[in-house]
Amino acid sequence: MDKEKQNVMDNYAIVTGAGAGLGFAFATEMATKGYNIILVSLPGEDLENKATVMTDKYKVKVRFFETDLSQEANCISLHEWVVQQGLKVSVLINNAGIGSTNPFLDFKPGFYTKQILVNIMAPVLLCRLFIPTMIESGTKAYILNVGSLGGFFHIPNKEVYGATKAFIHSFTNSLQLKLEDTQISMMVVCPGPVETNDRLKDAHKNMKGLAKKAVMHPHEVAAKAVDSLFKGKKILVPGRINNLFLALDWVVPNFIKNRILRKEMIRQASFSR
C-alpha cells in the first residue's frame, strides 16, 4: 500500500458543527479522501446515524462527539476524549458557528455571549489544545478555520457575526506566521452566501442579480476549501462573484455601499417578520 495513503488511513479529521450544512459537507469531503472522521456537534443532530451511513458509504472509521462548544470545559473534554481514545488527529476543521440576521436589539445579551463563545473562543481553544499534539506527531497536519465574506464588510443586522468572522480571519493569519516553521498548514475560508439550512434557502430565493448568483452549495464550498487547504493556500474566498464583491469594496464609495446595505437590511427585515 502507498505510504501516503496508509498515513491518511491512520489519521482522523475533526469537523465541528458537523451535524448538517457546511460542516457535514466538510466531513463528507474528508471521508472521500480516505480520512477517518470525528463528527462534533450539538446533541440531537442524529450524529450516530450519520456516522453509520458515512462508514458504510466511504469505508472509513467515523466517531462522533456530541457537545456544546460554547463551554470551555467541553472543548477540553473533546481533546481529552481524543487523547484517551488514542486517535491521531491530522486535520482540524473549525466550522461550528452561530449566525444571525435580525436587528441587533432583537436578541438578548445571552445570545451574543453564546455567539461569541462558539464563533471565536471555540476555534481558539481547539487550536490551542490540538496544535501541540499535531506538532508532537511529527507528521503533516492541517487546520481549516471557517470565516465569512461578511468578515470583510460592515453589515447591519450582522454586527456581531461579522465581527466574529473578522476575528477568525485575523487570528488565522497571525497564527499562520507562528506555525511557518512547523509541519502544520493553516487556512481560513471565507465563503459568501451558502445554502446551509432551510431558512437560508428561503432567504436566498428572494435574492436577485449577482447576489443570487453568488449563492453556493455546501459541498461546492467544502470541495474548494479542502483542495486549497491541501495545496497550502492561506486564504480562500470561494466563487468568482464573491471575489468580485471583495474587489469592488475597495473602489465603490462608502455612500453607495451604505445605500446598498440599507436596502438589503430592509429586504431582510421584511422577510424575517
Order of H and E elements: HEHEHEHEHEHEHHHEHH
CATH class: Alpha Beta
- Oligomer status: single chain
Summarize model confidence as the mean pLDDT.
87
Secondary-structure arrangement, i.e. CATH architecture:
3-Layer(aba) Sandwich
Radius of gyration: 19 Å
Low-confidence stretches: 1-6
- The helix tally amounts to 11
**What's the count of strands?**
7
Q: Characterize the biggest β-sheet.
A: 7 strands, parallel
Overview of this structure, please?
The protein has 273 residues and is an alpha/beta fold. The chain has one domain (3-272): Rossmann fold. Helix content is 55%, strand content 13%. The chain contains 11 helices and 7 strands. It has helices at residues 3-10, 21-32, 47-58, 72-85, 109-137, 159-178, 198-205, 209-213, 218-230, 240-249, 254-272; strands at 12-16, 36-41, 62-66, 89-94, 141-146, 184-189, 235-236. Strands 3-2-1-4-5-6-7 form a 7-stranded parallel sheet, sandwiched between helices. β5, α6 (159-178) and β6 (184-189) form a beta-alpha-beta unit. α2 (21-32) crosses α9 and α4 (72-85) runs parallel beside α5. The longest helix has 29 residues, at 109-137.
Q: How do the strands and helices of this protein lay out in sequence?
A:
Blueprint: H1 3-10, E1 12-16, H2 21-32, E2 36-41, H3 47-58, E3 62-66, H4 72-85, E4 89-94, H5 109-137, E5 141-146, H6 159-178, E6 184-189, H7 198-205, H8 209-213, H9 218-230, E7 235-236, H10 240-249, H11 254-272
Parallel strand pairs: 1-2, 1-4, 2-3, 4-5, 5-6, 6-7
What attributes does this structure have?
273 residues, alpha/beta, Rossmann fold, 7-stranded parallel β-sheet, 11 helices, 55% helix, 13% strand, disordered N terminus
